[in-house]
Amino acid sequence: MSPVSTPTTICVTGAGGFIASWIVKLLLEKGYVIRGTVKNPDDAKNNHLRELEGAKERLTLCKADLLDFESLREAIIGCDGVFHTASPVTDDPEQMVEPAVTGTRNVIVASAEAKVKPSGRYLCTESVLHRGEVVEILAKFFPEYPIPTKCKDETKPRAKPYIFSNQKLKDLGLELKTVKQSLYETVKSLQEKGHLPVQPTQTDDIRIRS
Ligand SMILES: NC(=O)c1ccc[n+]([C@@H]2O[C@H](COP(=O)([O-])OP(=O)(O)OC[C@H]3O[C@@H](n4cnc5c(N)ncnc54)[C@H](OP(=O)(O)O)[C@@H]3O)[C@@H](O)[C@H]2O)c1
C-alpha cells in the first residue's frame, strides 16, 4: 500500500481489540498517524500494537475509558478522523449498554468538538445471529471456500441472541436488508474488489430467501 502524502491523524478507540488492531495495522501501512485509545497503555496485552510496522514512528497509545469524556476528548482533539470500536463485548446487557450508549455519545461529542466530519455508511443490524449461523449461511452460498461449519461450543446449547430490538428504527421507516442478503453481497463485493479470490466452480444462480 502506498503511504498517504500528507500525514493524517486518526484516532482508533479500543485499539487493542480484535477489530481495532486490524484497523490500526492497515492505517499504519497506509501511512496514517494513529492515536489508539486503550484502557491501560502499560498492559502487556497491547504490546502487539507496538510491534506493528510503522508503530514506532506513528502510533501513540492514549489512556482512555469510554465513560471518561475528558480522556476521550484528549485522545481525539487534533485528529482528522475517528474509528470507534471500543465496547465491552458480552451477552450481559447490564455490562454493555451503559458504556456502549454513553461511550458512543462521548466519542461523537468529542469528535464533533474536534471538528471531525462524519462520513461513510451507517450500518444497523437486522437481526442478531450466533456465529455458527453466520458460517452456515456463508458455507451454503459459497461452498467453494473452506468455511468452518463447526463451532467449539457446539456441544452446548447455543447462546440466545441479545434481547435488543430494532423496532424503533423500523418505526422510523427504515427498511433493513436481510442478514443473508447482506452476507451474500459482502462476499460478492470483496470478490469484485479483489480481496477474495473468485473460485472457478462458483455459480451465480443462488437464490436468497429470508
Ligand atoms: N469481532 C467481530 O466479529 C464483531 C462482529 C460484529 C460486531 N462487532 C463489534 O465490534 C466492536 C469491537 O469488537 P471486537 O471483536 O474488536 O471486540 P474486542 O476484541 O473485545 O475489543 C473491544 C475493545 O473495547 C475495549 N473496551 C471495552 N470497554 C471499554 C471501556 N469502558 N472503555 C474503553 N475501552 C473499552 C476493550 O478493552 P479491554 O480489552 O481493555 O477491555 C477492547 O480493546 C464491538 O462493538 C463488537 O460488538 C465485532
From TrEMBL:
Signal peptide: none annotated. GO terms for molecular function: oxidoreductase activity, acting on the CH-OH group of donors, NAD or NADP as acceptor. The keyword NADP applies. Residues 10-111 form the NAD-dependent epimerase/dehydratase domain. InterPro entries: Epimerase_deHydtase (IPR001509), NAD(P)-bd_dom_sf (IPR036291), NAD(P)_dehydrat-like (IPR050425). The keyword NADP applies. Pfam families: Epimerase. Keywords: NADP, Oxidoreductase. This is Cinnamoyl-CoA reductase 2. It comes from Artemisia annua (Sweet wormwood).
